[in-house]
Amino acid sequence: ETAEGKVLNIWCWNDEFQSRFNAYYPEVKEIAEDKSTTTLNDGTIVKWTINPNEGNNYQNKLDEALRAQESAAADDKIDIFLIEADYALKYVDSEYTLDVKKDVGLTDDDLKDQYQYTKDIVTDSNGVLKGVSWQGCPGALFYNREAAKDILGSDDAATVQEAVKDWDTFVATAATAKEKGYKMCSSVMDTYRVYSNNVSSKWVVDGKINIDDNIMKWVDDSKKMADEGYAGTHALWSDDWSKGFYPDGKVFCYFGPAWLINFSMAADTDGSIANQGGWGATEGPQGFFWGGTWICAATGTDNKSLVKDIMLKLTCDEDIMKGIVEKDDDFVNNQPAMEAMAESDYTSTILGGVNPLGIYVAGAKSIVLSNLSAYDQGCNEEFQNAMKDYFEGNVDLDTALDNFKKAVVVKYPDLTY
Hints:
alpha/beta
């Protein structure tokens, strides 16, 4: 056994994994005041490199470092890097990621409790597993309880579910919401991932751009929602989008996984709906997932056994994973743990003291990822960009579709339409 490096380099785009690691990895001894390093019990220094993702910055810097990996000094080599679902295949199908089983040493038995879809996302074209995740990201429809009472006469989850059980019913309920002074959802972009997760074909078929029927259903429904004033057309994460996190924003619902409501909906801000425990949760029109973060072992790491231990503890240890749910309201990648907790007296403060895990568990089981492709990130981004023009009445549908295809071919010159 060769001596392992004394520095473990971890690359990511935000501090989510860093906070999980520092809070739950049992070997953590001390954390630097500026959080740039974490010292482990055996003296190893974990060095965090965090490059925000705006404008593809994280991937660009990561790619540069991975290309230089072979010639880098031992203590500068990347040992672990994190990836997101939208671009996972880029790294999974490359030589920059190690085989989790053969190279790192995790066994099928270690991994048996993880949700299948979380393995599918990071499995390469030869069936090799290239990453692991501590979280599952099945989605739910989060509804504003006060708005539900106003619009539907009740904030009971079963009543709300009946009013959003499929897309046609959802759009019909949006008309009632408008009468009561509410937007059904903040933006038509809010529903995009739910439709796009439920396609029956890939974005690219035989080298040609292909637009699935369910994506076109999103276009039709969204055009109506935008024209009737049931929802805006602004981008997710914009200031306009976030207004509905507060009562005055008058937004009925948002779609997302546990992380959206925990990290992104102003739960720590006085006066927000989340801060008052004012959101409810239900399944919504279709099951879906959004995002997720995977841990990859970088080819060339000089800390294989430490990487293995981190993967085992943070993604396979049931006790640690239960702790993450109890303390952080997250949904973890451990089926037995989540099923047990769905039946337990666990509650979410943000969701007004209800247990949402049963909804997530049901959602996680319905996720099928056989239609993922390496073109997804680019196609999804360009499609929403092009359709925004159409929803806002700047171009007709044919022009918008044409603009989409042209933009994709610029991004991926190997494609035709």
